[in-house]
Amino acid sequence: DADVTQTPRNRITKTGKRIMLECSQTKGHDRMYWYRQDPGLGLRLIYYSFDVKDINKGEISDGYSVSRQAQAKFSLSLESAIPNQTALYFCATSGKGAGSNQPQHFGDGTRLSIL
Amino acid sequence: LAKTTQPISMDSYEGQEVNITCSHNNIATNDYITWYQQFPSQGPRFIIQGYKTKVTNEVASLFIPADRKSSTLSLPRVSLSDTAVYYCLVGGNTGFQKLVFGTGTRLLVSP
């Protein structure tokens, strides 16, 4: 979905480095999410944000932090990367509505490898 | 937490109808059922959503029985480009932490 842009698309880095993954959207949605996907597995929710001042931990937030710089921007940081954080990371957005049933719109992902 | 269970994989041929069933025995009253499609190296894409009975759009149909403990995604006349992973999600207004993508169903369409 070109309306949700993730940068970089690929990144290889070393253990202990600080990494920032960025996500921007042009859909005008208030809600943004970060997911992680490991090979052969489904997506797991890391953090989500309902608006600029509302950020919440998801299923697997340990080792990650986020920043919602603006309605359209939501970044994910790994303060000190470790190899088991090697995965495919997705950003998603959704509009306001009743609960979590609003369809989510995903970016094409960032493939992160930590050596 | 409304956990879902889907077949790990399914095989089909071009032109056939494919039905993927998802089990969600402990679905809550305010939960909706949503299906996504994911191609390799791409993010999931919303296909269809429903609460009860039947929903149809240009891509698929979703059948939900009265007890809502399962749902079936129906893809009419599949093509090779329908080869993907299909995820069934159940979630309502009880908190986003509980919106969980399982391992999905890997559909392989052959010529």
Radius of gyration of chain B: 13 Å
Share of residues in strands of chain A: over 45%
Q: What structural class do you assign from the helix and strand content of chain A?
A: mainly beta
- Enumerate how many helices of chain A there are, as a single number: 0
Biggest interface and residues each: A-B, 30 and 27 residues
Order of helices and strands of chain B: EEEEEEEEE
What would you call the shape of chain B? globular
Number of helices of chain B: 0
DSSP summary, beta strand count of chain B:
9
The overall pLDDT of chain A, averaged over residues, is 91
Element-level helix/strand string of chain A: EEEEEEEEEEE
Q: What about the largest sheet of chain A?
A: 7 strands, mixed
Chain oligomer state: heterodimer
* Share in helix of chain A: under 10%
Largest sheet of chain B: 5 strands, mixed
Beta-strand residue fraction of chain B: over 45%
Report the end-to-end length of chain A measured between terminal Cα atoms.
29 Å
Number of strands of chain A: 11
Supply the key terms.
heterodimer; A: 115 residues; mainly beta; seven-stranded mixed β-sheet; 11 strands; globular; B: 111 residues; five-stranded mixed β-sheet; four-stranded antiparallel β-sheet; 9 strands
Structure characterization notes:
The complex is a heterodimer of chains A (115) and B (111). Helices cover 0% and strands 54% of the residues of chain A. Chain A has 115 residues and is mainly β. In chain A, strand 4 (31-37) and strand 5 (43-51) form a beta hairpin. Chain B is built from no helices and nine strands. In chain B, the strands form two sheets. Chain B has a five-stranded mixed β-sheet, with no helix packed on it. In chain B, strands 2-7-6-5 form a four-stranded antiparallel β-sheet, with no helix packed on it. In chain B, strand 5 and strand 6 (61-64) form a beta hairpin. The mean pLDDT of chain B is 89.
